[in-house]
Amino acid sequence: MRGLMGKLFAVILVVIALASAIPIVTHTWYGSAIRLSPPPDISTHGHAIDEQLSETMIEAGLSFLAAQLVLALFVWKFADRKGDTQIRTFPGGAKVMVIAALVLVGSEILALGVLSQKAWANVYFKPAAPDALQIQAQAGQFAFYFRYPGSDGKFGALHPDKIDEGNSNFFGLDPANDVESRDDIVTGELAVPVNREVLLLMHAKDVGHSFYVRELRIQQDFVPGLDLSVHFTATTTGKYEIVCTQLCGLGHYNMKAYLNVMSQEDFDHWMKQKASEQ
Amino acid sequence: MSEVVALAAAEHSIGHDVAQHHAPPQGFIRKHIFSLDHKVIGKQYYALALVAVFIGMALSWVMRIHLVWPNAPIPGLRFLSKTGAPGGIVTPEYYLSLMTMHGTLMVFFVLTNAPFAAFGNYFLPIQIGAEDMAFPRFNMMSFWTTFLAFCILTAAFFVPDGPPISGWTSYAPLSAVGSDAGPGEGFGQTLWALSIFVFCIASLLGSLNFIATTLDLRTKGMTLSRMPICTWAWFITSCIALLAFAVLMPACLLLILDRVAGTSFFIPAGLVVSDRLQPHSGGSPLLWQHLFWFFGHPEVYIAILPAMGIVSHVLVNSMRRPLLSYRVVIYCMMAIGFLSYMVWGHHMFISGMNPFSSLLFSFPTLLITIPATIMTLIWLGSLYGSKLRITAASLFALGFISMFVSGGVSGFFLAQPSIDIYLHATTFVVGHFHMVMGVAAIFGIFAGTYFWFPKMTGRMMSEKLGKLHFWLTFVGTYCIFMPFHYLGLAGNVRRYAVLVDDYLIPLIPVHRFITIAALFTGAAQFIFLYNLIQSRFWGEAAPANPWECTSLEWSMPSPPPFDNFGGKHPVVYRDPYQYGVNGSKGDFVMQDSPEVVKA
Questions:
Q1: CB-based contact (8 Å) between B505 and chain A?
Q2: Longest dimension (CA), chain B
Q3: What is the pLDDT of residues A241-272, one digit of tens each?
Q4: Cα distance between residue A139 and residue A222, in whole Å
Q5: N- to C-terminal Cα separation, chain B
Q6: Chain A neighbors of B386, CB-CB under 8 A
Q7: Looking at chain A from residue 142 to 201, which residues have their Cβ under 8 Å from any Cβ of chain B?
Q8: CB neighbours of B548 closer than 8 A, spacing ≥ 6?
Q9: How far is the C-alpha of B467 from the C-alpha of A213, rounded, in Å?
């Protein structure tokens, strides 16, 4: 049959386009309970990112569907037509295409670009409040460690040459000579009080790593040689996975820790307990 | 622009006499191995890409199987590596090796070699009416240097420390501090850097050659604005490649020096790796990232622009009409090439570079969608009212448009730094770049293969098998790469050897679906391989112009004689795509046909 292949292409393309949209719309894998969307946000800045994501999804999704369906339609209509039909040109020709792209994509870019800056600024341009809880995070092959300044409110200095994992001196502290480091609390778990801003001071021990908590909408690389920081406020108590997202060697897949968001009382209690364990 | 065209037109007659070309070689070695003939070199590049793509695909199979059936022994694997896969079961570090080698083979030896070096070498000189490349000896050198790079890379499979594990991006300091950083960071990583260094030399030679050939060897009447779109694409790509590989080459050299000579270009002070304080100071890991991505982003366009050119060329021929605008397409490709140098920082939004620069890099990244959209709309708009002929080649060209759109829209997300905070390093990125630069470019290669195979070998490929290959590949690749996006939205991290995190375990059924789709789609590629080999030796003899095409490569017998035009210089009288007109041969007029026609 004349044009069968073209019609087959059109049908398959429409099926692919619609089937591709289903998990996006339902947020689950076809007919199952497997969730395929970001987990509920537990941060104060995350809603801006989520809004940005859903707006982009609508615009990108519509562009995707429109382009695929038009491609399918044109191939259906014009593939393997009889020899005597005339070539026709799309009304307006290339000019229409250029103007359409400039107007449609241009306005999308402006809208998304401006909105995106706002969401980005919340995370990176607004400095942490002066009274934010400071916690130091160190990433190394293949574990995260966290350090709290202890009762003096000051972090002891770091001495990379004194790092000794066998004796649990993960940060390279020197309590013998350095008074400030004596009360520092080092843990493998990141405990934070709920609804209190946290300033995470990040450094890498060996190679590049990354700090990613999906629920917090935070992802930030640890870069060897650079002191970086992120700040966030967690709004919901619970335990969340912190995973490494920067390839760091054979144990990369297994490099993780937990973020434990607690009520202020639980946090104070936890701190006391950890201080006594040091 | 028009001045440039006029200038070039004035110069062409001087140009094409410059190259003093070689006589036909006699011995087997000069004819088939160390050949100076651009057509042989083009086929050599194609063959190398073919070997690389099947190795790369096999590696991805092993990765996919391991990811969802981690305890199932993979037959034959223990022979490849006793330590990496004891009993046929992949270790985490070997998984990362497979991933690194897969990425490196595919990006450099397939996506750069096949659409650009292979087809470009074969058809660029013919399409502009030249006897050969401007520098045939450089051309031979560039292929054999590429081959050397390939040997160095594959040798890394067999070194005692194991193949490299830092991924195709080889971020320092993991890639720079040496074997302290664990298995796969020993000699294998040095070989990786050396291989890419050598590859860069080859690409520089190749792109210089392409540029010189395009500018100097066009035949009489072949003005710049009469070049086929794919010739333009190869030309623009060589300009991009010249600048991009020129940056990656020294970067690799510095990485090698950090590894073997004790320098500290990428390694800062105070690093403690495997309990050893590293004897380095003063380097910057971000420097590597900047240098790498300054190359790495244009590289995406090095892969996709030739595919765009090939697809345009094939589509116009299948639609039997010119594109809505030839000029706009060329300008769009130039704009893409130009913008491709301003966007590299979007790979580094969360790398710790100044957050203001993220916004600066975001804008041109979003901007680049404009020329890409214009091109897509021109392809779509040209389909309207055409007399589209469905062939294996045109199906892959149409499939390219579909894939390019699908992979392109996900770029919208990743171009915005705020969304990238969530999606960076998830499988969303994996889905995005596999579709837009991997699958789309490979569809371009397939379209080119089905289209030009008759010219390159003198035999027709089986259309029936070609179409079957298309249907399986088209549906299959969507089944593989769409789910990657969904997993990424759920925060699924990439580059994990085993899925052990609490939130990743429930996602394994989706991974299993991807693996099964990958196995099926991969198996379908053997239909292509069979078709290629079967047709090469036993295919029907090809006429000079089986697709009724207008450009110069179809004006000569299939396969072309040694000096392409039989000692004559063809004269070009018209634009490259005179379709939908009443010519003496049908609805088209060849570029070198002097007849006067009315549209």
A1: no
A2: 80
A3: 999 999 999 999 999 999 999 999 999 999 99
A4: 7
A5: 26
A6: 78, 87
A7: 160-161, 163-165, 172
A8: B317, B585, B586, B587, B588
A9: 45
Q: Two tokens at B318?
A: 């299948």
- Residue A105 phi/psi, 5° resolution? -70, -40
Minimum-distance CB partner of B398 among A24, A75, A80: A75
How many whole angstroms separate alpha carbon B150 and alpha carbon B196? 9
Tokens 């801006």 -> residue: A48
d(CA B394, CA B208): 31
- Quote ipTM for the complex: 0.96
Positive or negative torsion for Cα B485, B488, B490, B494: positive
Secondary-structure percent of chain B, ordered helix, strand, coil, rounded to 5 = 65, 5, 30
The distance of B122 to chain A (nearest Cα, Å) reads 30
* Closest in A85, A90, A125 to B387, CB measured: A85
State whether residue A10 sits within 8 Å of chain B by CB. Answer: no
CA A227 to CA B407: how far, in whole Å?
A: 35
Residue B584, Cβ density class (10 Å: 0-12 exposed, 13-18 middle, ≥19 buried): exposed
Alpha carbon A143 to its chain centroid, in Å, reads: 19
CB B266 within 8 A of CB B288: yes
Residue with tokens 């112009």: B545
Indicate the DSSP class of residue B544.
S
Q: Could you give the CA distance from residue B242 to residue B434 in angstroms, rounded to a whole number?
A: 24
Domains in chain A: ranges and CATH: 2-82+90-124 (no CATH), 133-277 (2.60.40.420)
For residue A233, the SS3 value is strand
Smallest CA-to-CA distance from B562 within B139, B162, B198, B25 is with B25
- The tens digit of pLDDT for each residue in A21-61 reads 999 999 999 999 999 999 999 999 999 999 999 999 999 99
Distance CA B442, CA B435 (A): 10
Cα distances from B319 to residues B145, B220, B245, B490, in angstroms, run: 39, 28, 36, 41
| Residue B286 Cα distances to B245, B290, B293, angstroms | 19, 6, 10
Contact check, Cβ <8 Å, A79/B474: no
Residue type, B22: H
Half-sphere exposure of B121 (CA within 13 A, CB side): 28
Integer Cα distance of A217 and B356 in angstroms: 19
Instruction: Provide the greatest CA pair distance for chain A.
Output: 94
Restricting to A residues 245-264, those with a Cβ less than 8 Å away from any Cβ of B are 245-254, 256
Distance CA(A225)–CA(B181), nearest Å, equals: 16
Amino acid at B557: P
Residue of B nearest to A45 (CA): B418
Q: Model-level pTM?
A: 0.94
Task: Chunk chain B into consecutive blocks of 10 residues (it has 599) and report each block's average pLDDT, rounded to whole numbers.
Answer: 44 44 76 92 97 97 95 85 86 95 97 96 97 95 97 94 94 94 93 98 96 96 96 97 96 97 95 93 96 96 97 96 96 96 94 92 93 96 94 97 96 94 96 96 98 97 97 98 97 96 96 97 98 97 96 95 89 94 88 80
Q: Rounded to an integer, what distance in angstroms lies between the CA atom of residue B577 and that of residue B417?
A: 42
- Amino acid at position B295, single letter: F
Are A98 and B328 a contacting pair, CB within 8 Å?
Answer: yes
Rounded CA separation B237/B210 (Å): 9
Type of residue numbered B233: A
3-state secondary structure B165-205: CCCCCCCCCCCCCCHHHCCCCCHHHHHHHHHHHHHHHHHHH
Q: B541: Cβ–Cβ under 8 A, 6 or more apart, which residues?
A: B458, B459, B460
